[in-house]
Amino acid sequence: MSDGPGVGKGVVTPLRVVIGLCLVAPFVAMLWVGSYAKTDPTFIGIPFFYWYQMLWVIISTVLTVIAHRLWQHDQRGRRTGDSASAKGGAAR
Question: Which residues are listed as membrane-spanning (predicted)?
């Protein structure tokens, strides 16, 4: 059975790889506890362990916004590409 044109066709593009990396990076940074399980250097009296995690809250927000904008760009490109191919196919 066919679900219709374009349904279920997952395409891996460089843009989608970048989107995935933007979304995975915070998880890797936070799950690798050994890299930040220390007290030095301190920042305004706050141990590294705490300010590193708080910094990743900001970085994660920025990376998520970037991933969202890239996803919107990707979807706009796919819509214009689909409509152009549909017009080209209908003209034949």
Answer: 17-37, 49-71
**Long-range contacts of the stretch 6-12 (C-beta < 8 A, 24+):** 6/82
Burial of 23 (0-12, 13-18, 19+ CB in 10 A): middle
How far is the C-alpha of 90 from the C-alpha of 81, rounded, in Å? 14
pLDDT digits (tens, 9 = 90+) for 39-63: 889 899 999 999 999 999 999 999 9
Residue 48 near residue 42, CB atoms below 8 Å? yes
pTM for the predicted model, two decimal places: 0.73
**Residue matched to tokens 């998880």:** 27
